[in-house]
Design a protein that fits this description.
With 243 residues, this protein is of the alpha+beta class. Helix content is 34%, strand content 28%. The protein has seven helices and nine strands. The protein has a seven-stranded antiparallel sheet. It has a two-stranded antiparallel ribbon with strand order 7-8. β3 and β4 form a beta hairpin. α2 packs across α3 and α2 packs parallel to α5. It is globular.
């Protein structure tokens, strides 16, 4: 008799399943603590937010941009300037460089220096100057530099602040990054801090050198004495090709 009722109960459960019903034993309803936990934002989605934000910022600075340049590990180079250059292309190159597709990226800006009143013209004349962002990348190492044409200084984004402040320069390693070698405290192994530094840099581009000078994020290489010659030499050594 027990076997008979077990058999009948099994058939009833089968029929309920056919018509879309669930028995208590088979219920898939989960308790509140069993519900799907909030999923973290995927890296691709975060990157899409960053790309959109950088595009919007640079679009507002479009008249300051002169040219952009990338080079791959084979030495193949692309340069786009002025009217042919789009903000979307610039941000794509930045993103691809930091993701390892290029070993070198440069973005040049024409900014205005301090104004000088010229009596014979009866107006204030502003001295324009070039400042250039440079990214180096290879084999998981990356670095971010900014050559400020007004002060002829090179600002380098700091990865390891302790090494920068506490370790004697003679004990620091020079690491290969792209086609150059850089002090280890400015060499990054992942891009998130560079992403954030670029966002801040572009937002305050017209006053970049002034802001960097007082920031703990950036180290400064002052080219004096020697001035223009030392500044241009450093630009060549750090991989910035002659315009």
């Amino acid at each position: 008799m027990h076997t008979f009722w077990n058999t009948m109960l099994g058939k009833i459960r089968e029929l309920l399943g056919i018509f879309g019903f669930q028995t208590k034993k088979e219920s898939t309803t989960r308790l509140p603590d069993e519900q799907d936990a909030p999923q973290p934002v995927r890296a691709e989605k975060k990157n899409a937010y960053w790309i959109k934000e950088i595009e919007e910022i640079l679009e507002s600075k479009r008249e300051l941009i002169q040219w952009a340049r990338v080079r791959n590990e084979k030495g193949e180079e692309q340069t786009i300037s002025e009217d042919a250059l789009t903000v979307k292309q610039i941000v794509q190159w930045i993103d691809e460089t930091l993701d390892g597709q290029y070993v070198y990226f440069a973005l040049d800006f024409m900014l205005q220096g301090d104004g000088i009143y010229v009596k014979r013209l009866n107006k204030t004349v502003f001295r324009p100057f070039h400042s250039t962002l440079v990214l180096h990348q290879s084999a998981g190492n990356m670095a971010c530099l900014f050559f400020a044409g007004d002060s002829m200084c090179c600002y380098r984004l700091i990865h390891d602040y302790y090494a920068y402040c506490e370790i004697d320069s003679s004990e620091l390693r020079m690491l290969p990054v792209g086609e150059t070698k850089l002090t280890e405290y400015i060499v990054f192994q992942e891009r998130s801090k560079i992403d954030e530094a670029l966002r801040i840099l572009f937002l305050d581009l017209e006053y970049a050198a002034e802001r960097m000078k007082g920031s703990k994020r950036w180290s400064i290489l002052n080219m004096f004495p020697g001035g223009v010659n030392n500044y241009n030499k450093l630009r060549r050594e750090q991989g910035l090709l002659e315009e």
